Amino acid sequence: MENHLSPSILAADFGNLSQNLQAAEEGGARYFHFDIMDGSFVPNISFGMPVIHSLRKNSKAFFDVHMMVDDPDRYVQAVADAGADGITVHQEACTHLDRTLNHIHECGLKAGVALNPATPISTLSCVLPLVDLVLIMSVNPGFGGQKLIPYTLDKIRALRDYRENAKLHFSIGIDGGATTENVQEIIDCGANFIIAGSAVFRPNDQIAANVKAFRKIMGENPEGENKS
Description:
Layout lengths: L3 E4 L9 H10 L4 E7 L11 H8 L5 E7 L7 H7 L3 E5 L6 H10 L3 E6 L17 E5 L14 H15 L4 E5 L7 H7 L3 E4 L1 H4 L5 H12 L10
Parallel strand pairs: 1-8, 2-3, 3-4, 4-5, 5-6, 6-7, 7-8
Helix pairs in contact: 1-8, 2-3
């Protein structure tokens, strides 16, 4: 399964957000990760649909939207209308996860589901055939710049084995603490969709070089199409 880097704009300079994304695209980024936080499901507030909409105008990259909010089904259509290509919701935030995943697909988007570090992968056994991405949170969600929690790599290994045994085809993502120093280990565990924030957008004048460094290690296909 092809490896993808999705830089998290939460770590970008919001005073120069468009320029930061452009620099990442110059480095080869074809995906961007948007963390929408509500201050309830997670102890922080980030941004909403207007940011996605404003950046959509100048980018053909895949917009990967991570809903860290209570009852995300309320916002699926609005996020789709803003220009998202994929929406990932939290298992812990969805009363009717099956319905929410189907709602995302009905809007024409890729559907993902995220698990907090302490949530076992067994909670997804009934819905895995519906998902395009399972995102393993390798930090406790809500803040950028945290260090990867080691036991989350065991979850990735177990999820990879489950996928192979069940003959399913969803991507396995990791969100939190990914760096050029540990991304090879992460990939070796079975992840192919890597979210990275601070390691991409800092320092601000090295964004393109940081993306290139990740992509070189990951072996990301330079000829791959956007929105795949």
